[in-house]
Design brief:
Pfam families: NAM (PF02365). This protein is mainly β and 130 residues long. It contains one helix and six strands.
């Protein structure tokens, strides 16, 4: 069941007082992403489903289900070309570019790789002025 938060205009799940959502990378992959991909029930519906590329980064906090300084989203992954592997990261007024080295997400004991973390930066496209 969800309750409405009229000040933010979004819906928050009913959570106990003092609740904080600070999952580790492993917890995000194992308890949320893998379950979401397998269409299994999630522990709590706290991560919003948003097509990130339809919005500019400064618009995303208002799309989140929960959070004040960090926000989490499930977003569909689109391909740039129908038969290719390259992701389409074009957004409204720019694009998201991968930067740095991909970081392996390991289990707490460090024995198994459960995912990969990519760092993305947003680059605004210059607008032509006449």
């Amino acid at each position: 069941m969800e309750i409405s938060n009229s000040t933010a205009g979004s819906h928050y799940p009913r959570l106990p007082p003092g609740f904080r959502f600070h999952p580790t990378d492993e917890e995000l992959v194992v308890h949320y992403l893998k379950k979401k991909a397998a269409a299994c029930p999630l522990p709590v519906t706290i991560i919003a489903e948003v097509d990130l590329y339809k919005y500019d980064p400064w618009e995303l906090p208002s799309k989140a289900s929960f959070g004040e300084q960090e926000w989490y989203f499930f977003s569909p992954r689109e391909r740039k070309y129908p038969n290719g592997e390259r992701p389409n990261r074009a957004a409204t007024s720019g694009y998201w570019k991968a930067t740095g080295v991909d970081k392996a997400i390991l289990t707490a004991n460090g024995t198994q790789k459960v995912g990969v973390k990519k760092a993305l930066v947003f680059t605004e496209e210059a607008t032509e002025r006449y």
